[in-house]
Amino acid sequence: MTTMDIPPFSLPLLAHGAALPADCREAAAVLNRGCACRSVDHEALRHALEGGDGRGGNVSHADLLATRPHLFSDTTVFVGEAHLQRMADLVAAVERVVALPAYRARVLAWAPASARHTPRAASVFFGYDFHLGAAGPQLIEINTNAGGGLLAAYLLKAQRACCVPVADMMPAPDAVDALEAAFLAMFREEWRLARGAAPLTRIVIVDEAPQAQYLAPEFELFRELFEAAGIAALIADPSEFSFDGERLSCRGQAVDLVYNRLTDFSLDAPSSAALRAAYLADAVVLTPHPQAHALYADKRNLVALTDAAWLTEIGVDAATRELLLGTIPRTEEVLPETADAFWVTRKQWFFKPAAGFGSKAAYRGEKLTRRVFEEIARGGYIAQALVPPSERRLLVDGVEQDLKLDLRNYVYRGVVQLVSARLYQGQTTNFRTPGGGFASVFSVPCRGEGEDRT
To answer: Which of 37, 147, 310, 377 could share a disulfide with 162, CB 3.0–4.6 Å?
Structure first.
C-alpha cells in the first residue's frame, strides 16, 4: 500500500493535513483524540488466530467475536516514545530494588509459606499496568500472571495503516513475527534455568475450570504454539494433577513444566494440593510461581516502593528513588487506626485488596459507601493515590465515544516484550464495553530536537 492508497484521517475529529506537535507525547495525545479510523484487518486477524501460518488452529475468529464481542477493539492507541521508555525504565528500576536482600526480607515477611520457596525459574508474563497521567506514565499495579499477551501479539499482526500518520508508526513485520518466537523462547528459558539441557517434552496450561475462563481461547493458542514447536501440551484444571512424591502427572502423563494461569497465587486451595506439593519438592517447573507473586504483585509492595525514607535506608540510589517516586502513585496500607483519615480523604484514593487481582473488590474512593469502607477499614487493603486514566476517542456505531485506557507492559526478566492497551468504560478495566477490549499500541517517535525522552 502506497501513501496515496492510505485514507487520510477518516473522520472530522482531526482536520486532514493538520500538523502534529513535534513532542511525541503531545502528538500521541492529539492522535488519540483525533485519529479514529479502524485499524484492524479482520481477515489478517482470522489468518493469525486460525493458524493460517501453517501451525494449524482450533480458534475460530467468527466464534471468538460471537462469544467475546468486546475482546478486541478495532482501533489502535498511540503512545509517545518517551512514555514507552519511561515505563521500561520503571520496570528496570523495580528489578533493581527487588534484587536487594532488604526488600526481599520485608515483602516475604508477609507472604504465604509457599512464597518462601525459591525456585530457579524467573516466571513468565509479568504485567506492569500503567495509566497515563498529567505527570506521565503512572504504575497502577504489577501482575505476575498477566493474560492476553499472545492475543495482543496476534492483534498486532492484524494492524493496517488506516490513515497517513499511522503509516509511519506501523511496527516492522519482522518484529511482530518475532513475538511468537520470543514467547516460546521465554518458556524454553524457564526450563533451562531449572533443568539445564534436559529435554522439555510436556507443558500443561493450568487454570481453574479453564474452558469457562474468558481468555480460554488464549490457552488454546498457547497449546498450539507449544505443539508446533514439538512440545506436547495440555490444558487442565488443577484438580487433574496427581503427585506421587517424585513426578507430577496430568491425565496419566508426566508433566515437565506448568504454565500457571491460576489466581490461587499461593497454591493454598485444595484443588492445588498436588501442584503445590510438586512445586515445593522441585518436581516440576512452575511458571509463574508463588514467590514471584510475593516479590512483585502483592500490592503492599507498592507501599515499600514509594517509601522514600526506607528506600534511602536500604541503599537505593538517588536516580532510582526519583524514578520510583515519580512513576508510582503514593500508596499506603489501610489500617484500623488510620481508617478515619482515609474516609475523610477518600475521594483522593483508589482502594484495593493487598492480595487481590484485577478489579475484584477494588473501589474508587468517591464511590464508596460507608458500609463498604467499614470492611476496608478492618485491614487487608491498600490505598493508592488516584490517577485517572487517559482516554481514546473513537466511533462506536457512528457515535463519538471517549473510552478510558490502561497500558500493559508484558515483561520477562526485566525486559519489556510487548505493550498493549485495554479500552473500557466504568470504574476498572473490563471486556464489556462496545468498542473496547485489547488494542494495539503504536509508538509515536520523538522528533523534537533535544526532546527529553524520560
So the answer is: 37
